[in-house]
């Protein structure tokens, strides 16, 4: 337990006096009682279908015959027209460059205009992406489409995920945030099915895949239109009545819910977080790098960046890789991969709040490191259909481990590790750092794979194997367990500089207050 010496030193912050009447409610009971806000959280993250589908289509379509026929600019030694690996790398890199730009700017727009403003920007940028893809006829047209798509992706953290994190209870927060990874994988799976059908039936009508994206836009728009502004943003702007009305719309009519008391708890947590930030210095993005906020920013950044280090740029590039080595089942392999990803993310719904974040990360990264290393070893063997099938099995095992660990937890950590008053700023910085890593790998990996340049092919897996094992060591020492912790508890633990390995076993002042409250009710 944190004693007085370990407690937060700033007198103006103090220990929370108010505790929610539902703080100790079990997860299942909390979800049933507060079903409305849980459902709204799930609907918000359902935009992941839209994001996953529109993000996967441009990346996977590079093996489509009609697409290659339209955008190919070079010829291989066998006389076959192929895509220039340099352009493929640029298509991947530009989306992360513009994503980084949006991630840098989006915290300012969210702070100034609200989270719904960023949601609308996200939606508009996705619409512009689709239109640009439809009318693309040269490689630089498609480059422009990828740039617009990057702008949209850069708004996700400071809109969808920040909003979902702010409105949900700690008991359901992990499940709701994990659902974004599920929806994103569902969108990717839908894109794999669409491309496989097009490739089998009408390979030269590849633009049908672009038109199909309007379906998901139509599914997301009604949700966005009906959402109120974030109560947290309204409260920090001093609009208390609007904040109360927004909470009422989100929570609904819940039996036994004391509106004034719960709003006081809500206000106390925000005020406490703002006081913590003020204690470290001026309230701004620079504040994310001061005091304990620096540690929280590093953790948020490291998990997102780790997605690159454990093999995502290689293993999710299956369509391009298989097309380079001459295997004809590229789209089938892609379909299998996304089916496994979707299944794994569904399993993670239960595991992230039951098992915890830290054990899943350590176990998942361990398996991914082994899989990608073996994959790299197979690169020294001449690729045949049999070797291709072995690679698919390794990719599937890697994908399952990825889907129950870094895929959902990377997004959860992005919003959980930041203090409420600095969440938007921390999310923007963390996502910006991830984009910088993405730019590096998305441009260089196609060059590593292609015989036009480095020609490493499958041996590229050895590079990611080494990086994955290094990531495993870093996560062991840096990443704490946040399961079932309120934001007030996380503030307390970080302020007391508790070791990442001791987070789950440390008793906080907040949890002690909850125990006292429960004991008094039992008497």
Automatic annotation (TrEMBL):
Xref: InterPro entries: MFS_dom, MFS_sugar_transport-like, MFS_Sugar_Transporters, MFS_trans_sf, Sugar_transporter_CS
One Gene Ontology cellular component annotation held by this UniProt entry: membrane
Domain Major facilitator superfamily (MFS) profile: where?
A: 40-483
- Cite the GO molecular-function annotations of the record: carbohydrate:proton symporter activity
Pfam families tied to this protein:
Sugar_tr
Record's Gene3D superfamilies? Answer: MFS general substrate transporter like domains
Q: How does it sit in the membrane?
A: Multi-pass membrane protein
Q: Which residues form a coiled coil?
A: none
Q: Keyword set for this entry? A: Membrane, Transmembrane, Transmembrane helix
In the record, which residues are listed under signal peptide? none
Which compartments does it reside in? Membrane
For this UniProt entry, what is the primary localization, expressed as one broad class?
Answer: membrane
What stretches pass through the bilayer? 34-53, 87-105, 117-141, 147-165, 177-198, 210-235, 303-325, 331-352, 359-381, 387-415, 427-449, 461-479
Q: In which family does this protein belong, per the annotation?
A: Belongs to the major facilitator superfamily. Sugar transporter (TC 2.A.1.1) family.
What is the designated name of this protein? General substrate transporter
Which organism is this protein's natural source?
A: Dioszegia hungarica
């Amino acid at each position: 337990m944190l004693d007085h010496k370990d407690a937060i030193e700033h007198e103006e912050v103090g220990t929370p006096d108010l505790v929610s009447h539902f703080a100790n409610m079990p997860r299942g009971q909390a979800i049933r009682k507060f079903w409305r806000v849980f459902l709204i959280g799930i609907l918000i993250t359902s935009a992941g279908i839209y994001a996953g589908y529109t993000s996967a289509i441009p990346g996977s379509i590079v093996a489509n015959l009609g697409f290659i026929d339209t955008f190919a600019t070079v010829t291989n030694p066998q006389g076959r027209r192929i895509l220039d690996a340099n352009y493929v790398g640029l298509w991947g890199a530009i989306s992360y460059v513009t994503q980084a730009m949006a991630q840098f700017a989006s915290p300012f727009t969210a702070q100034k205009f609200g989270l719904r403003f960023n949601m609308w920007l996200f939606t508009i940028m996705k619409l512009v992406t689709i239109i640009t893809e439809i009318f693309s006829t040269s490689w630089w047209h498609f480059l422009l489409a990828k740039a617009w798509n990057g702008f949209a992706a850069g708004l996700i953290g400071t809109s969808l995920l920040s909003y979902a994190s702010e409105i949900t209870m700690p008991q359901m927060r992990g499940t709701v945030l994990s659902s974004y990874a599920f929806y994103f994988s569902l969108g990717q799976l839908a894109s794999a099915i669409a491309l496989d059908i097009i490739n089998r039936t009408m390979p030269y009508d590849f633009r049908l895949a672009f038109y199909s994206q309007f379906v998901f836009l139509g599914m997301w728009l009604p949700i966005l239109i009906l959402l109120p502004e974030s109560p947290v943003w309204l409260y920090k702007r001093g609009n208390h009545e609007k904040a109360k009305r927004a909470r009422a719309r989100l929570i609904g009519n819940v039996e036994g819910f004391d509106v004034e008391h719960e709003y006081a708890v809500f206000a106390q947590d925000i005020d406490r977080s703002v006081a913590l930030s003020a204690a470290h210095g001026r309230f701004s993005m620079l504040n994310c790098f001061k005091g304990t906020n620096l540690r929280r920013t590093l953790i948020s950044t490291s998990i997102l960046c780790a997605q690159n280090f454990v093999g995502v740029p290689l293993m999710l590039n299956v369509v391009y890789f298989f097309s380079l080595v001459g295997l004809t089942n590229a789209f089938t392999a892609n379909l299998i991969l996304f089916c496994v990803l979707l299944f794994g993310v569904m399993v993670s719904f239960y595991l992230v709040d039951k098992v915890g974040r830290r054990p899943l990360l350590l176990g998942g990264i361990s398996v991914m490191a082994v899989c990608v290393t073996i994959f790299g070893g197979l690169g020294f063997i001449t690729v045949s259909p049999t070797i291709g099938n072995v690679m698919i099995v390794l990719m599937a095992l890697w994908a399952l481990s990825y889907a129950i660990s870094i895929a959902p937890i990377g997004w959860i950590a992005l919003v959980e590790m930041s203090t409420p008053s600095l969440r938007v700023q921390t999310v923007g910085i963390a996502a910006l750092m991830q984009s910088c890593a993405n730019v590096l790998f998305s441009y260089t990996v196609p060059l590593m794979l292609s015989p036009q340049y480095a020609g490493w092919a499958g041996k590229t897996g050895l590079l990611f194997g080494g990086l994955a094992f290094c990531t495993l060591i870093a996560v062991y020492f840096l990443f704490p367990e946040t399961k079932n912790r309120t934001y007030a508890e996380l503030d307390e633990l970080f302020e007391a500089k508790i070791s990442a390995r001791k987070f789950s076993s440390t008793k906080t002042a907040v949890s002690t207050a909850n125990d006292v409250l429960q004991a008094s009710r039992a008497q």
